[in-house]
Amino acid sequence: MASEPEINQSVPPSGTGCVECLAEDGWWFHLRRCADCGHIGCCDSSPSQHASHHAAETGHQLIRSFEPGEEWYWNYETQELLQGPPLAPPEHHPLDQPTPGPAGRVPPDWQSHLH
């Protein structure tokens, strides 16, 4: 039986971009925020898929979009799109941050690298 996913409304996001991509000079398509610990990772369309790796490694199964205008949650365990409460601000990456991002790291043929 699946455990209830954790939503921690008080923890802020870990930053403005994918933690692992920033550390290894990578790039992302879209960003996802762990609803339990605030970890920001890149989406499953991104080359490195760090958000789902974080979920698999930690058991934190619930993420929320970290894109402007998107408020949905995703449960990796049940593969369900969900609605949920607001999280601690900011609720999305900075509006001046490009998608894909970060600026200066996205290859010219970025579409060919998406999953």
Essential attributes:
15% strand; globular; Herpes Virus-1; 115 residues; alpha+beta
Question: Could you characterize the architecture of this molecule?
Answer:
The chain is of the alpha+beta class and 115 residues long. The chain has one domain: Herpes Virus-1, CATH 3.30.40.10. 12% of the residues lie in helices and 15% in strands. It has two helices and five strands. It has helices spanning 19-23, 50-58, and strands spanning 31-34, 40-42, 62-65, 73-75, 80-82. A five-stranded antiparallel beta sheet has the order 2-1-3-4-5. β4 and β5 form a beta hairpin. It starts with 18 loop residues before the first helix and ends in a 33-residue tail after the last strand.
List the helices and strands and how they pair.
Blueprint: H1 19-23, E1 31-34, E2 40-42, H2 50-58, E3 62-65, E4 73-75, E5 80-82
Antiparallel strand pairs: 1-2, 1-3, 3-4, 4-5
